[in-house]
Specification:
Helix content is about 80%, strand content about 0%. Helix 3 crosses helix 10 and helix 6 runs parallel beside helix 8. The protein contains 13 helices and no strands. The protein has about 280 residues and is mostly helical. The protein has one domain.
Length: about 280
């Protein structure tokens, strides 16, 4: 039963990655500034999660709670700022160095050993991501690159803290992170609110579905999967993201991006197969 639960969690986490990956095209199509989108999205996501988990919230300031909330808020804010100051490719690639930090610190923080096969998976993932953006990397935007490294660190902190606090109210930490992000972004939304129904619908999708419902799935899955497994499955997000951008905005990835996507998807698939065999053994 435990193995079946882990398989279901892995599948639902892949669905979460799918929903997260639609954020790029939705944000590009929204006629709002990035911080305005971030503020409105986070407020709607917090309200959605509070409604879904009403009566089960616990905002006690434990160490995992505080670290998860700060990590998630840091992830959202630094990613938006990095995207403004450097190329989107640089921002995404540097953010997805997070599995490396998780592999380094999970044995100490969570007592979850990093196996040799995990390191091989991390190497394949990072290599695939490098190929994915090889034709779009640039040395420009130093501060944006620095902030993007902060996104990767924040993502790793969030994942480790969520796993460490899996016996508590994880969704409360996520809501707290969204409220912190909303506080930073709402002034931008008030300064330039949506002007038509389509923009409001796009913002509603980003807040209620792309963040709210997907994070409800994430909270359920992270209790059942190892931290490194979870963050590696989520590397599907930056692979699928440009596919939706290409379909919605006409921005086509280059051949290196296609090759990198094949490497990452192949690595995720192989890891899932080998993990299933270990569970059956």
């Amino acid at each position: 039963m435990a193995e079946r639960g882990q398989g279901r969690a892995a599948l639902l986490l892949a669905v979460t990655a799918f929903l997260w990956s639609t954020g790029g095209v939705a944000i590009k199509l929204a006629p709002l500034s990035p911080m305005a989108v971030t503020g409105g999205r986070s407020l709607l996501a917090a309200l959605t999660l509070a409604a879904l988990f009403r009566g089960r919230l616990d905002f006690r300031l434990t160490r995992p709670f505080v670290c998860a909330a700060l990590g998630y808020a840091g992830l959202l804010v630094t990613n938006v700022a990095a995207t403004k100051l450097t190329t989107a490719a640089n921002a995404i690639l540097l953010a997805y160095t997070a599995p490396v930090y998780v592999a380094l610190f999970a044995p100490t923080v969570l007592k979850e050993p990093t196996r040799p096969a995990d390191w091989a998976f991390v190497a394949a993932t990072v290599g695939g991501m490098a190929l994915f953006f090889l034709d779009k990397l640039s040395p420009q935007g130093l501060w944006g690159n620095v902030l993007a490294v902060g996104t990767g660190i924040s993502y790793a902190v969030f994942t480790l803290a969520m796993r460490a606090g899996r016996d508590g109210s994880l969704v409360s930490a996520v809501i707290a992170g969204h409220l912190l992000t909303a506080a930073a972004g709402l002034p931008f939304l008030f300064a330039g609110p949506p002007r038509d129904a389509a923009a409001w619908l796009g913002l509603a999708y980003l807040g209620v579905v792309q963040q709210g419902l997907s994070l409800a799935l994430y909270v359920w899955c992270i209790k059942r999967l190892r931290a490194l497994t979870a963050i590696c499955i989520m590397t599907l997000e930056p692979v699928l993201n440009p596919v939706f951008v290409a379909l919605g905005c006409g921005e086509l990835p280059g051949r290196f991006a296609v090759l990198g996507g094949i490497v990452v998807i192949g690595a995720v698939t192989l890891r899932a197969v080998f993990a299933g065999r270990r569970a059956d053994a």
